[in-house]
Amino acid sequence: MEKQIIPILIYHSIQSVPHTDVMRSLHVHPKSFALQMWILKILGYRGCSVSEATASFRSGTTEKLVALTFDDGYKNFLTNAMPGLKKYGFSATVYAVSDLVGTSNRWDSKNGISDNKLMDYSDLRMCVSEGIEVGCHSSTYTSLTAEAVELAREVTFAKETLENNLDICIYTFCYPYGHFNDSVINEVSNAGYKSATTMIRSRATANDDGFCLPRVPITWHTLPHLFLAKVLTKYEDVRKYS
Description:
alpha/beta, eight-stranded parallel β-sheet
């Protein structure tokens, strides 16, 4: 039997920004996003959460799935992504930074990246009510491999904070900046998460470690032909360890 392949797509902000914006690639134009969701639908894919994807690997089902992840939990998810997801019956995973819920992407200010509002807990509860998975993206969005980092606070306490405020269980983690090592993986596993996503580039399969799941970046510059290549071909797979 051919192994199941599930692209786990990385999105951040879904909004239009000026061409002069620093790191414009962090954004995807709402019209581009809408087209990408339509493409997935007509190709017979269902957009799902990370937990749904990993459950599919365990069960061995052959459903055509694409996991949709939205790092950081930007407020524009509600206005510019949620309608398209609902239109096609898609789910997704939104990764929230627990200490910064309801504020903005403060970690980006030192790099000159424009201020972008994050969802508050009311917004995240709305996501949950609409079938969107909320995952954890640490407490403060700091590199978890830094020498002075408090892993327990960034991983375990962050999980507890989100769970207490949303009254749900948090099952999936996303490493800030894609930085992780064995100590970080152990902390994530021991905290009770069931999966974690990385910045390693590839489509995911059941052979991948559930705490080192690779993903496929979707940016401002991902035109339709490139989007198709990323989802349908080995375009990203060959970049796995490059």
